[in-house]
Amino acid sequence: xxxxxxxxxxxxxxxxxxxxxxxxxxxxxxxxxxxxxxxxxxxxxxxxxxxxxxxxxxxxxxxxxxxxxxxxxxxxxxxxxxxxxxxxxxxxxxxxxxxxxxxxxxxxxxxxxxxxxxxxxxxxxxxxxxxxxxxxxxxxxxxxxxxxxxxxxxxxxxxxxxxxxxxxxxxxxxxxxxxxxxxxxxxxxxxxxxxxxxxxxxxxxxxxxxxxxxxxxxxxxxxxxxxxxxxxxxxxxxxxxxxxxxxxxxxxxxxxxxxxxxxxxxxxxxxxxxxxxxxxxxxxxxxxxxxxxxxxxxxxxxxxxxxxxxxxxxxxxxxxxxxxxxxxxxxx
Length: 332
Description:
Blueprint: H1 2-26, E1 33-38, H2 46-61, E2 66-71, H3 79-88, E3 93-97, H4 98-101, H5 120-127, H6 130-137, E4 144-159, E5 173-176, H7 180-188, E6 192-195, H8 201-207, E7 212-216, H9 217-222, E8 231-247, H10 248-251, H11 256-290, E9 294-296, H12 301-307, H13 311-318, H14 320-329
Parallel strand pairs: 1-2, 1-3, 5-6, 8-9
Antiparallel strand pairs: 3-8, 4-7, 4-8
Helix pairs in contact: 2-11, 13-14
């Protein structure tokens, strides 16, 4: 009888232990939270590789409680639709350039001012400092939380006809993002700016709707635009910071420990992507040269002097203090 009672006790204890182990395992639910990260660049772009780094970091640090799904190449829509998705919570996260965010937070257009900075370390000092943090905070009223800055590369012109000097730009139809700073800057250079979404540019170049466009080196290569237009002018006319963002509505649904993982991983991925972007830009330039792209280095003096006049045009909208703070930072 004692032996039966002991066996029964062992059975009960084993059952209880199994139950405890089951509940302990159940405490970590794989895929408990899902994050969609949408962006317009394709899988060969450094930004996509940065997103892959972010996804891996988040999944590992949360023991796969969070599943991160990446949607490159505009799969979830163009930039404006992505912004709306972030605002509503339909899209959890995205990486978008400040040139596009300027349509929703005008102050981001300060980075579009031509020749605002001349060295990569100048813009890094700005986005990693107080000014950069203040600009990210301006996304909050839009229902979006700015987590970190990613690449901050210089933009250049690529055209069907070579641009050896600013005079060669006269009358050329150049695609620009849909914000007024770029429009004014290209007009000041003598071009005819043509706003359109980035997803339309490849076809527009093919059909001759535009004579060229401007962007960072890694994007020109990754988008294969260099296959259509074979001239690249190293103009360094603007910088392009990119912001990793999360929907505020979605962020609030995450437990504090996962919120911290997302924030930390966004910064880690940002540093990784910045280094990758810098290295890729130089490599991609050589690849484009090898593919027959002719590179010119025009005298930047006329570009700088002709575009500085537009600063006054945007002082009221962007804030004279903001512009001066960035200019002062570049002098340190």
